[in-house]
């Protein structure tokens, strides 16, 4: 694993092990007031960062049953029976927000906090957040974190006020994975419903079921049973992309029946610096869109993904105008095995890691190659 560039977002400069007072000056970042708590003195140490989401949501006082993210990370940790037998968990609240509000800038700060915790010697890291965009945030962390130790993202489908809330079980399983030497070198992982998923493949494929998270490309890497991690398959660490400038705006557009391409034509004028286009099937678009798309390729990198969300974008099967052979020959980049959401995360990060278009395109290709 190697990394490109260096981060200018090293905002959290304090050591993980210093006292609570040392965290009180968060003026250089918008990280929420930091709480700091530990459980047990087990030999394994796991840092847990709370960002909010359903797992940390509770009905607002005097309101209906509608919940808002409001719980501190240490409260979540304290709600998990038997956690101390797995690891000593050091928790901090970084945000109490819905995942809809998480930005790339937030993720750069989370990545800095994770690097800081890892530098202090923890065995692994858990991030708790809203589940709605875990498939994007976890993949962004996969590309931002430079360490072999496990980083595990989890959340909950049912909030703590509901019968059968899954947050405590998900935290327990996530901590078990974060503390496990077996989980090293796999990049960022997502643990939900006792399943271990690779960030590069996991998707939220149901709105409300506890089994909402699946990896259509290859299935989960493993499972957690009785607090023990069982891994059946492994993935390689990815090259990383360190942000060095302002976040590059990248659009994700899905090609639809009867599409004429007017949306893609508008993108350069809207300030976008990159486009991920989800084509039909193997990577196809209507012929009428091709010339419009060629104009966009002249202005910015354009990645071709499949709107099916699984499989590998074709390279040499179809030759009609608007086919994958046609589009790739016109300078579009293949998303390979990445779905549109993940290809957009990767393109955003490589464009944010260098101002040079050729370099960003070769960095994107390297990520796609590494995933296979
Ligand atoms: N429904 C979401 C969740 O599962 C809310 C969010 O993503 O913040 O946490």
List the helices and strands and how they pair.
Blueprint (H helix, E strand, L loop, with lengths): L2 E2 L32 E2 L6 E8 L4 E3 L7 E3 L3 H6 L9 E10 L6 H16 L4 E5 L5 H11 L6 E4 L12 H12 L9 E5 L2 E4 L4 E2 L8 E2 L7 E4 L2 E4 L8 E2 L8 E5 L7 H5 L7 E6 L10 H10 L2 E5 L17 H6 L3 E2 L5 H14 L3 H15 L1
Parallel strand pairs: 1-15, 3-6, 3-7, 7-8, 8-9, 16-17, 17-18, 18-19
Antiparallel strand pairs: 2-6, 4-5, 9-10, 10-13, 11-12, 13-14
Helix pairs in contact: 2-3, 3-8, 8-9
Bound molecules: aspartic acid.
Do you know the CATH architecture of the largest domain? Answer: 3-Layer(aba) Sandwich
**Tally of structural domains:** 2
Beta-strand percentage?
15-25%
**What is CATH's topology name of the largest domain?**
Rossmann fold
What is the N-to-C order of secondary-structure elements (H for helix, E for strand)? Answer: EEEEEHEHEHEHEEEEEEEEHEHEHEHH
* CATH level 1 name of the largest domain: Alpha Beta
Ends apart, CA distance between termini: 15 Å
Low-confidence stretches: 1-39
**Fourth-level CATH superfamily of the largest domain:** L-asparaginase, N-terminal domain
- Overall mean pLDDT: 90
Per DSSP, the total helix count is: 9
Instruction: Name the structural class.
Output: alpha/beta
What is the tally of beta strands? Answer: 19
